[in-house]
Amino acid sequence: MWLFLKDKTTFFTQELKVLHVAPEHCFIDRFAKLSNLEYITGDLESPLAQVKMDIHQIPFADDSFDVVFCNHVLEHVQDDIQACREINRVLKNTGWGIIQSPVYEMDTTLEDATVTDPSERERLFGQRDHVRKYGRDYASRLSKSGLHVQENTFVKTLPEETIIRHALPPKEILFFCTKGT
To answer: Would you say residue 113 lies in a domain?
Structure first.
């Protein structure tokens, strides 16, 4: 994600208001130090976040953010489409985001709300606290929220030595989103 932001966006130079949902520890300090960003972190449980929030009801006004990051969250939440509707709502008209989740080599997403046993969730969805396992329909599924979702294969454009140096999965897809209607 860092390489993509550096090479393909104005993230490090343009004045931007950023919402980072469930912020990764490796990014918090680095992003917070960037003088061009108004950087806000939000999470339901994490003490690392500035704002305690439920992604199903993001506590910010419509059209508030230039950028939203939401990585490895949607496989945990009750209603991923509602969460994406909220991301779409708080994005400015020119806004964009990156929304990553594990995506598996299967055509359609597997979910079953009746599965509540942690062991069974781990068996079916890959982790005890996951409520779904995304398939190749991830982008089209998120698009149901109104977001425009692009499957970006930026990693495939990188030199092999960069892929090796950063231990990047060569088939990694970045799910780049823009505000929809």
So the answer is: no
> Could you tell me the pLDDT band of residue 181, with boundaries at 50, 70 and 90?
confident
Terminal-residue alpha carbon distance, the chain: 26
Residue 9: closest CA among 94, 90, 86: 94
What range defines the domain where residue 81 resides? 2-107+134-178
Tokens encoding 16: 């931007």
Q: Strands of the chain (E only): list them.
A: 16-21, 37-43, 51-52, 65-71, 91-100, 110-111, 132-133, 148-152, 174-178
Q: What is the CATH number of the domain that holds 42?
A: 3.40.50.150
Question: Taking all residues of the chain, what is their mean pLDDT, rounded to a whole number?
Answer: 96
Provide the sign of the torsion angle of the four alpha carbons 136, 95, 24, 4, taken in this order.
positive
Cβ atoms of residues 69 and 100 within 8 Å: no
The tens digit of pLDDT for each residue in 9-38 reads 999 999 999 999 999 999 999 999 999 999
In a domain, residue 128? The reply is: no
How many domains is the chain built from? 1
146 exposure class (CB count in 10 Å sphere: 0-12, 13-18, 19+):
middle
pLDDT tens digits along 125-147: 999 999 999 999 999 999 999 99
Counts for the chain of helices (H) and strands (E), in that order: 6, 9
